[in-house]
């Protein structure tokens, strides 16, 4: 049974805000090399109401029923790279399925274990392996790809726990290293680390605790899995490189959508 549509608590306004990594020629060239540049977007919206963590369900439901979102949030509608809007009218969204994403890991030292397990050499070179061709279109020819993706058949997969893999910084890194359908893998870890750091810093917001003087993340992140009552979010369903993250910044009252679709 569909959920009863209540009056919206949160309303949104499209905010034409540049995403800093997309302004960098070096980063855009890397995303093109990894076959992600033309199938990735960020879109930012403002909201006027105070947001608390326990209101996430209402927030995302209102978000996907808001006219400004329906008219300005772009998704890929076909594998040829055609962009369109969610469309429809306010009230069509009856449910939103989300997955919580943590943001407690904030340092690139999080990935030091890649050196320890031997997937990456001390000089940053990524260790190669015999190619493995997966049903979802991936060709895994580096130990790094095995650690990222192969739960069965890779002893080093476990160096990142399930909790580690729910961290935003891990998800950014994983998506960038797996790339798109015609990905040209980098042989050195440096470009992946640098781009992950750039994306993370641009997506999340931090603040300093006045008592402890320690910096902590103030953003809340949720991965959107499905939006009931709307068209499909991705042209090819069920691929691990399909993603839509909502990064909510309560202090600035902004929410950024980071979106990518697999078009293989």
Verbal overview:
It is a single chain. With 264 residues, this protein is of the alpha+beta class. It contains 8 helices and 12 strands. It has helices spanning 20-23, 25-33, 56-63, 67-72, 113-116, 143-149, 168-178, 190-203, and strands at residues 12-15, 40-47, 74-76, 83-85, 95-101, 128-133, 139-142, 206-208, 215-217, 220-228, 243-249, 254-260. A 6-stranded antiparallel beta sheet has the order 1-2-12-11-10-5. A two-stranded antiparallel ribbon has the order 3-4. A hairpin with a 5-residue loop joins strand 6 and strand 7. The longest helix has 14 residues, at 190-203. The protein is globular. Mean pLDDT is 92; it is low at 1-5.
Q: List low-pLDDT spans.
A: 1-5
For the biggest sheet, the summary is: 6 strands, antiparallel
The helix fraction, in percent, is 10-25%
Order of helices and strands: EHHEHHEEEHEEHHHEEEEE
What does the radius of gyration come to?
19 Å
Q: What is the CA–CA distance across the termini?
A: 35 Å
Question: Based on CA inertia axes, which overall geometry fits?
Answer: globular
Q: Kindly report the average pLDDT value.
A: 92
Structural class: alpha+beta
H/I helix tally: 8
Strand order of the largest sheet: 1-2-12-11-10-5
Q: Compute the number of strand runs.
A: 12
Strand percent estimate: 15-25%
């Amino acid at each position: 049974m569909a959920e009863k549509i209540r009056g919206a608590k949160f309303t949104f306004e499209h905010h034409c805000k540049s995403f800093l990594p997309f302004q960098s020629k070096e980063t855009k060239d890397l995303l093109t090399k990894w076959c992600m540049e033309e199938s990735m977007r960020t879109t930012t919206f403002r909201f006027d109401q105070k947001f608390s963590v326990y209101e996430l369900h209402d927030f995302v439901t209102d978000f996907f029923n808001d006219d400004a979102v329906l008219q300005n949030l772009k998704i890929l509608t076909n594998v040829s790279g055609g962009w369109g809007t969610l469309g429809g009218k306010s009230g069509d969204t009856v449910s939103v399925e989300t997955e919580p994403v943590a943001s407690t890991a904030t340092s690139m030292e999080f990935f030091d274990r890649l050196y320890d397990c031997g997937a990456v050499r001390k000089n940053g070179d990524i260790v190669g392996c015999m190619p493995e061709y997966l049903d979802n279109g991936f060709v895994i020819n580096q130990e790094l790809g095995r650690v990222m993706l192969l739960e069965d058949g890779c002893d080093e997969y476990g160096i990142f726990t399930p909790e580690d893999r729910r961290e935003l910084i891990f998800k950014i890194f994983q998506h960038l290293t797996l790339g798109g359908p015609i990905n040209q893998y980098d042989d050195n870890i440096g470009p992946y680390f640098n781009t992950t750091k750039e994306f993370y810093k641009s997506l999340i917001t931090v603040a300093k605790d006045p008592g402890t003087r320690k910096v902590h993340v103030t953003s809340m992140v949720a991965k959107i899995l499905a939006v009931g009552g709307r068209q499909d979010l991705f042209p090819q369903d069920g691929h691990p490189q399909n993603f839509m993250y909502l990064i909510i910044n309560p202090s600035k009252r902004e929410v950024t959508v980071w979106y990518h679709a697999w078009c293989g």
